[in-house]
Amino acid sequence: MDLAAYTNDIFNYLVTNIMPLPMVIKGTGLAIIVLLVLRSIGQFLSFSWIKAATGLVIALVIALVMARYGQDIAGIIYDPAQNNGATNTQN
User: Fold this and answer.
1) Helix 23-45 and helix 3-18, axial crossing angle in degrees, nearest 10
2) How far from 4 is each of 8, 22, 61, 76, 85, CA to CA, in Å?
3) Residue by residue, what is the 3-state secondary structure of 5-67?
4) Alpha-carbon dihedral sign for residues 64, 68, 71, 76
5) pLDDT digits (tens, 9 = 90+) for 5-35
6) Residues 23, 65, 70, CA angle at the centre, nearest 5°?
7) pLDDT for 50-82, tens place per residue?
8) Could you give the angle at which helices 23-45 and 49-78 cross, rounded to 10 degrees?
């Protein structure tokens, strides 16, 4: 496989796993990714290439974490009893 095929596979993986996530997870994650990418573009234009590359890598890591663990995170947010050690102490 060539680089284009790997890139296409990663893109398809991200899209198919992020799109069905609840808006709380998807919206927040995508907003963070967009901000990181926009900051990286500004840093690239100001010749801070290492900072720009680091921002893009962080954005990719956030997207991969969302794709892999997004449903688990949504489950914790929507069902707080799933947290380790969480108990309901209401009387």
Assistant:
1) 140
2) 6, 30, 19, 36, 45
3) HHHHHHHHHHHHHHCCCCHHHHHHHHHHHHHHHHHHHHHHHCCCHHHHHHHHHHHHHHHHHHH
4) negative
5) 899 999 999 999 999 999 989 999 999 999 9
6) 35
7) 999 999 999 999 999 999 999 998 888 888 665
8) 170
Let me know: does 52 contact 43? Beta carbons within 8 Å. yes
Residues 29/18, Cβ–Cβ less than 8 Å: yes
Task: Check if the beta carbon of residue 17 is closer than 8 Å to that of residue 29.
Answer: no
- Which tokens sit at 12? 């398809």
The model carries a pTM of 0.78
Nearest-angstrom CA–CA distance, 40 and 54: 8
Tokens of 62: 């956030």
Q: Give the residue from 60, 55, 30, 57 showing the smallest Cα distance to 40.
A: 55
